[in-house]
Design a protein that fits this description.
By secondary structure, the chain is an alpha/beta fold. Helix 5 links the parallel strand 4 and strand 5. Helix 3 crosses helix 7, helix 8 packs across helix 10 and helix 11 crosses helix 12. It folds into 2 domains: 218 residues, Rossmann fold (3-Layer(aba) Sandwich), CATH 3.40.50; 92 residues, Rossmann fold, CATH 3.40.50. 44% of the residues lie in helices and 16% in strands. It has a 6-stranded mixed beta sheet with strand order 1-2-10-7-8-9. Strands 5-4-3-6 form a 4-stranded parallel beta sheet, sandwiched between helices. It contains 13 helices and 10 strands.
Length: 335
């Protein structure tokens, strides 16, 4: 069981090694959305271009605190976890091996290799799991991308930082939106929110094409896809969340499913208004927030975590194949 205090401890561990990423907002967007106040935590500006470095660094630093120094670490990843593990292994002089599905973004494969880890491409997530288990039996230390307490704690530090910084500006957040893949960021964000006095609601966006978490909530049991569903939000394609993250998911405000068109629409608008590079997985949270805000009658102060900015050239071209910037988002003004 993870306690909210564990998020603070994780932040103390990783703070010397990682960026305290900025928070930004857009007056134009707030006006478009009826006067709600949206604040964006830019994890696209984190080392490796993703929040995933937080969990990876916290896990390895936690092991060091426990006197455990693995000679070799093995991981499975859809992209950004691989980069986080690879960078941490390089910094702490640990051999790293990462199994990645061939369908993963080539940009993320190249980045993971550039930090020094051995990246092995496989044909399925099931094969990645099996190969990682063999490595673990042979003495490697396995670090799961989301089914791990210290990974969850590390991911939660993004929210903890943001709420701490916003509190200094006398900004009280009502609700937080994150994307959901395996549920590590969602779980950590929920736990971090409990460190603050106001009753903050945490929500997750999920592609309707890849909605294992939403189905799991509806069925009240884990739903597992047989094969990876297609979605442009490649960073959050998973077969299933885990029992560990499902436990925290059930405590949140829930999942809001969004279409591929909504993801592409908000990827364009976030890049345009915030002047950032954000991957489609990040836009899933904004798409969910927009749908939710349309149901709200009172002005909201929202935190959205922009989870990453690692986007392949082909994906970028697909996103901008059609121009959505002529279709301005709109919510009636809140008085």
């Amino acid at each position: 069981m993870i306690l909210p205090q564990d998020i603070i401890d994780a932040h103390k561990r990783i703070e010397p090694y990682l960026h305290r990423t900025p928070i930004t907002s857009s007056n134009s967007l707030n006006d478009f959305l009826g006067g709600h106040n949206l604040h964006f935590k830019l994890e696209c500006k984190q080392k490796i271009g993703s929040f995933k470095s937080r969990g990876a660094f916290n896990k390895i630093l936690y092991l060091k605190d426990q006197g455990i120094i693995p000679q070799k670490i093995v991981a499975i990843s859809s992209g950004n976890h691989a980069q986080g593990i690879s960078l941490a292994c390089k910094l702490f002089n640990i051999d790293g091996t990462i199994f990645m599905n061939r369908s993963v973004s080539p940009l993320k494969i190249q980045a993971a290799r550039s930090y020094g880890a051995k990246v092995i491409l496989v044909d399925s997530n099931q094969e990645a799991d099996e190969r990682a288990k063999i490595e673990e039996k042979n003495g490697a230390y396995f670090i799961h991308p989301f089914d791990d307490d210290q990974i969850i704690e590390g991911q939660g530090t993004a929210c903890y930082e943001a709420l701490t910084d916003l509190q200094k500006e006398n900004i009280d957040i009502n609700s937080i939106f994150v994307p959901c893949g395996g549920g590590g960021l969602l779980s950590g964000t929920y736990l971090a929110s409990k460190l603050f006095p106001n009753n903050i609601k945490v929500f997750a966006g999920e592609p309707i094409n890849c909605n294992d978490a939403a189905i799991s909530l509806k069925k009240d049991e884990l739903h597992i896809f047989d094969t990876l569903p297609p979605t442009i939000a490649d960073g959050i394609r998973t077969l299933s969340i885990s029992k560990r993250t499902f436990f925290y998911l059930k405590k949140t405000g829930g999942i809001i499913e969004v279409s591929e068109e909504e993801i592409i629409y908000w990827t364009q608008w976030l890049q345009h208004l915030l002047k950032i590079t954000c991957e489609p997985s990040s836009a899933v949270a904004m798409a969910a927030c927009y749908k939710w805000l349309k149901t709200q009658e009172n002005k909201q102060n929202i935190l959205i975590i922009i989870s990453g900015g690692n986007i392949a050239a082909e994906t970028y071209r697909n996103i901008w194949a059609r121009n959505y910037l002529d279709d301005v988002p709109h919510i009636a003004k809140i008085y």
